[in-house]
Amino acid sequence: MRKLINICGTSRSGSTMVDLMIGNDPQAFSLGEVHAWFRPFRTHHFNIICSCGQINCPWKKLKLLNENEFYEKCFELLNVNILVDSSKNLPWVIDNNIKALKKGIKVYNVLLYKQPVNFFYSFWKRNVPLKHARKKEFVKYYKRFFQTGLPLISMDYNKLVENPEKTLKSLCKLLEIPYFPQKEYFWTKKHHQLFGSIGTRKQVEASNSKIRKKEDYPKDFENIIPKIKMDVTKDIAFQDLLLNLKIHELKSQDFISNNKIHKPVWYYIMKIKQNIRQRFPEKWKYIQ
Ligand SMILES: [Zn+2]
């Protein structure tokens, strides 16, 4: 059966890496953040510059497809039965779940999250204020995800990097896709994923790599860890979301029966904003 696997989560949740791990299979293809190609919002989204450097890069054909036929044609053109999409953008994920369902494609939604201290570190090291990371990333994203009623399998990114083999094996079982030894060595396959994490992309290009188990926090950050832990413990909204994420952790997607998919008000607002952004895209200083 043809499968579409969405990798969801906040920014810096490790979605590019998980996309590539699942895509590391001759029967699979990692699309990356494909929503940005069809619904561009930054200037660099208007061009596909695949890091593969191959003359016969599959994006030469794929980029000509339109949004409505995209996944169906991808299965045909790439001759695979698993597509991995790490767009994360919720209106896109809602739309692709609904469309795929109609076309007999089975959809899985993997929702990634990090342990609180590690989550805050990902933003702290990029000079993002922690209040902003809490409100605009963690609370906003996961709250909205749960409002959609989308079926999901959640996965703790920190557990994945601590024990990639065991965790990926469990995930593959739930996704009903094959696991083989060293599937987690995503850099061993030539990928063509769009956009996403620059660091992970570099790992693929280097084609020899390793999964970093634990990050060594600098002293400045170590000093604020007790405060972060205390704030998180007292934060009811944060705790509620964490609890909900844990309930779904590496459990079958049908663990809570397939609810109806909802389109909350923010779905329509985000779509209007995206239309405007498409006309007036943001300049992005990072080269992808
Ligand atoms: Zn390519």
What features would you describe in this structure?
The protein contains 13 helices and five strands. The protein has 288 residues and is an alpha/beta fold. 33% of the residues are buried. The longest helix has 18 residues, at 130-147. The chain has helices spanning 15-23, 35-38, 59-62, 70-78, 90-102, 116-124, 130-147, 157-162, 164-175, 198-206, 219-234, 236-247, 265-279, and strands spanning 3-8, 28-32, 82-85, 106-113, 153-156. It is globular, with a radius of gyration of 18 Å. A five-stranded parallel β-sheet has the order 2-3-1-4-5, sandwiched between helices. The chain starts with a strand and ends in a 9-residue tail after the last helix. 47% of the residues lie in helices and 9% in strands. The structure holds zinc ion. Residues 50, 52, 54, 57, 59, 192 line the site of zinc ion (ZN).
What structural class results from the helix and strand content? alpha/beta
Overall strand count: 5
How many helical stretches? 13
**Major sheet:** 5 strands, parallel
β-strand percent reads 5-15%
Sequence of strands across the biggest β-sheet: 2-3-1-4-5
CA-atom Rg in angstroms: 18 Å
Q: List each distinct ligand once.
A: zinc ion
Q: Which runs of at least 5 residues are low in confidence (pLDDT < 50)?
A: none
Instruction: Determine the N-to-C terminus distance.
Output: 33 Å
Instruction: Name the helix and strand elements from N-terminus to C-terminus, one letter apiece.
Output: EHEHHHEHEHHEHHHHHH
Mean pLDDT: 91
Shape category: globular
The portion of residues assigned to helices is 40-55%
